[in-house]
Design goal:
The chain is mainly beta and 391 residues long. The chain is built from 1 helix and 32 strands. The longest helix is centred in the N-terminal third of the chain and has 37 residues, at 2-38. This is PQQ-binding-like beta-propeller repeat protein.
């Protein structure tokens, strides 16, 4: 009996220990499950505010709205392709000032301190005070201006709609030099290339499919390279993006090229045309194509890492922040993708598409853009922890 009792006690103790182990394991798993769910994050996209940028409703033909919003101080400045440019309070969207411009302001602008420079569709190039909208000077190009300007050492450079590239004194608007290039093709895409600058040399694309290097002081040609030779759309409207000695530049319905800045020679090329400049993060390029894809490529050789096919239209230029890329679809949504995988994180539908590259306020997790309907949006986009008990 004593032996049986000891045996029974041993068995019971063993079972109790097993039970404790199983219970502890179960409780541990429950704890891990609760902890992981409690710490789960989701990417949330919410509209903070939206404002119409036109003074009156546009009852005529639909215009192109693609100016990237400008952030300066507590203002966000936005032009439209209808009737002008205006400034809004960044947090609330309250109107601060408005400058009427006939036929509107289509291209993006350049900012230095309180001075804003932009081309307009009324045949003039403007310098205004960013804080008040007061005009400092205008320069007549006598044709609509569709390209974003570049500022450097007191000189503003821009390409007019007639393939004339200007250098103006930023303080006075006085013309310093110009470079003109003829285009004999019958078809051209609406737009223009913003110049890029490296070591005193400007690089700019033209509608005849050429990339030209110009001396920034004199406007003299350093070299020129014919890239896009298509019979239909040969335009190089994308901004050249410089990284070291490499220039990344796309032809509209052609290819993405990597070009030596020093020699003006093609290093590599990738099939698929582009309208916007590439964006660079580390060893990656993000390339929005006119075929309706966003490509993630190796910067060194153009090898494809991943691709994302947009649902509607073509993508705008990509903006990068906190491991995320943001871009608009010309006939669809504002999209947010994971930078490393191309996985969709979030989206929002503004109506009538987006042609403007978004502007990112990374500190406040806010994205600004103008829609095809000329509405300025402020979007809050961020990772948010989900509470287990709220699910």
């Amino acid at each position: 009996m004593k032996i049986q009792s000891l045996y029974s006690s041993a068995v019971i103790m063993s079972l109790m220990l097993m039970g404790c182990s199983t219970l502890n394991s179960t409780m541990s798993n429950l704890g891990e499950s609760w902890s992981s769910r409690n710490n789960k994050r989701t990417f949330e996209v919410k509209t903070a505010w939206v404002r119409s940028t036109t003074e009156k409703d546009n009852l005529g033909f639909r215009k192109i709205n693609r100016m990237t919003p400008i952030l300066v101080g507590n203002l966000v400045i936005q032009g439209n392709g209808v009737d002008g440019i205006a400034a809004y309070e960044r947090e609330t969207g309250d109107l601060k000032w408005r400058l009427p411009v006939v036929n509107g302001v289509e291209p993006s602008a350049a900012l230095i301190r309180d001075r804003l420079f932009f081309g307009a569709s009324d045949g003039n190039f403007y310098s205004i005070e960013a804080s008040t909208g007061r005009v400092q000077w205008t320069f007549p190009t006598k044709i609509e201006n569709l390209s974003e300007p570049l500022l450097d050492e007191g000189v503003v450079y821009f390409l007019s709609g007639s393939n004339v590239f200007y250098a103006l004194d930023a303080a006075t608007g006085k013309q310093l030099w110009l470079y003109s290039r003829q285009d004999t093709s019958q078809f051209s895409i609406r737009g223009g290339s913003k110049a890029a600058l490296r070591n005193g040399i400007l690089y700019v694309g033209f509608s005849d499919g050429s990339l030209v290097a110009l001396n920034a002081k004199s406007g003299n040609v350093v070299w020129e390279l014919q890239l896009n030779r298509n019979k239909r759309f040969r335009d190089i409207d994308a901004t050249p993006v410089i990284d070291g000695d490499q220039i990344y530049i796309a032809g509209y319905d052609d290819k993405l090229y990597c070009v030596s800045a020093e020699k003006g020679e093609v290093v590599w090329r990738v099939d698929g045309g582009g309208y916007s400049g590439v964006s660079i993060s580390g060893d990656k390029l993000f390339y929005p194509t006119t075929g309706g894809e966003v490509l993630a490529l190796q910067k060194a050789n153009g090898e494809k890492l991943w691709s994302y096919k947009v649902k509607d239209g073509i993508p705008t230029q990509v903006k990068i922040f906190k491991g995320i890329i943001a871009f608009g679809e010309s006939q669809g949504r504002l999209q947010f993708l994971d930078l490393n995988t191309g996985k969709v994180l979030g989206e929002m539908e503004p109506g009538r598409g987006i042609l403007s590259a978004p502007q990112v306020d990374e500190k406040n997790n806010r994205v600004y853009f103008i829609s095809g309907e000329a509405n300025l949006y402020a979007i809050d986009a961020a990772w948010v922890k989900k509470d287990y008990f709220q699910e």
